[in-house]
From TrEMBL, chains A, B:
This is L-threonine dehydratase catabolic TdcB. Keywords: Lyase, Magnesium, Pyridoxal phosphate. It comes from the Bacteria. InterPro entries: Ser/Thr_deHydtase_PyrdxlP-BS (IPR000634), TrpB-like_PALP (IPR001926), TrpB-like_PALP_sf (IPR036052). Its EC number is 4.3.1.19. It comes from Botrimarina hoheduenensis. Its cofactor is Mn(2+); Mg(2+); pyridoxal 5'-phosphate; Ca(2+). It holds the Pfam family PALP. Residues 16-304 form the Tryptophan synthase beta chain-like PALP domain.
Amino acid sequence: MEPITLADVRTAATRIAPHVWRTPLVACEPLSAALRCDLRFKAESLQHGGAFKARGACNAVFALSDDEALRGVVTHSSGNHAAALARAATRRGIPVYVVMPHNASPIKLAAVRAYGVEPILCEPTSEARERAALEAQERYGARLVHPYDDPLVMAGQGTLALEVIDDWPEIDTVVVPVSGGGLLAGVLTAIKAIRPEVQVIAAEPAWADDTARSLASGKNEVPTRYDTLADGLRAAVGKLTLPVLTRWLDDLILVEEETIRAATRTISAEARLVAEYSGAVPLAAVMTTPERFAGRRVGLVVSGGNLDMGGCRLGESPRSA
Amino acid sequence: MEPITLADVRTAATRIAPHVWRTPLVACEPLSAALRCDLRFKAESLQHGGAFKARGACNAVFALSDDEALRGVVTHSSGNHAAALARAATRRGIPVYVVMPHNASPIKLAAVRAYGVEPILCEPTSEARERAALEAQERYGARLVHPYDDPLVMAGQGTLALEVIDDWPEIDTVVVPVSGGGLLAGVLTAIKAIRPEVQVIAAEPAWADDTARSLASGKNEVPTRYDTLADGLRAAVGKLTLPVLTRWLDDLILVEEETIRAATRTISAEARLVAEYSGAVPLAAVMTTPERFAGRRVGLVVSGGNLDMGGCRLGESPRSA
């Protein structure tokens, strides 16, 4: 029994259409020539909030009955999902409780506040986060919107696959970053129902290889470290998502940190897109095994563009000509 | 007598459609909220070659008769136009002669070579460039494709305005960077013919204010310095373009260097687009006089994304969380 079907993804697409952007598929001729395949970037970095997370969050929020909606939604993500849920709830005009560790990055906190929502700060432990989220559920009756192990969220994320195959019918390969697996499960559900011959390949940091190990062992493995540059890919693969991956996934490619860094630079220089490290992981997979992709028509999901530029802010240190 | 008409722009749009990309208009909700207007970026940074120049170059190249085309095209631009012409000529399979100073930036040289064209290097003076270009014209019968003072180039650049008003019928203001004025003249020709009530505003660096002075004096003034960060905007306004600007332009806003730098950073952080300094000048104009734009629906042309990141390469120096 699959957690979601193509029909769920199609329903999500209709539901969220007024609230998310149909992002472009960006071609890059010189990079395609260099890597000997036709590469196009699905630029979810340009999505509202700078990540695909707007899709799943809007689907979960706008699927609520008016009665459920009155009691609001809650999550305890510290990443792009938090800001996406804040935005979706604000658009519907309902309460939203976003639990974040008090040491979350100022950029992530600011992203939630940009939608007029004040995060509920807690200690930076899983227990503290879950306790604070449970409190909002019990006190207000708010619905928990999990960042990936939620059928409505998975279906929402899968809507980007409908756009990709509509924009590029000749596509034969899609590469998707994997963390909790919500995006990947949604994409697999849509593509394997409509175009089963299109290969769907997961890209995962070698330093966050729990999905690779889970697929090998057949059960949910947990990460052994949490320090990959790709901070959006540090979560463990989900209970609901793993069976979908196990059934449909064609391949998984592990990538090294240096390749993620190089791919991030390449996307900005060659495709002029700001990708966060997690969003550059699919290109890193192509750079890792170019022979695997030679001659193919490859769609790469740039999952987000919220790059903490740190000391290296674009436009700040021009080289004098 | 206008150098081009709306019909020329429409003809160009049909001619170049197979060769250029219909770039997206990217919304940015938090930035719009902060600046109290509805801002959308026409992302020509995502165009093939990373700049709107692909449009004019393709229009000029594909308008040639087969007989003319055989003899090739020549230009002596050292900027985005050079690479755009190399790409257009390569697509048509005709000779192209690109004269560049031997001290041109390695990035600009590489952009031309990426399309399989070896630049003709010359001394870095205007005389040397023009002499080398004239030699190609005389020896091969190649047609000179000027970067802006050419009706086919102007009409090609104007095609982006057709896309903007088609994608966003409610738009009431367009802000365009000005250098030679080819893009601005093309945009004015299209918009003032179709939607004369839409305001078209030029944005120009205060350190390259020859267009502002030319509009004031009524004749072609020349730049007094060539050191604005916005290296794409250092050329003098053209002989053919100035009359179009004089007739139709609604306003011109001069911007300071620090504002250009801040706008470049803001576009990357808030809209996740890599803009070159020249491409950030329209946002700099809004940041300079926000009251001028309050409550309006403003399309900003991000003219290009070929930012020389110098010592500051995206993805290279992440701040340790």
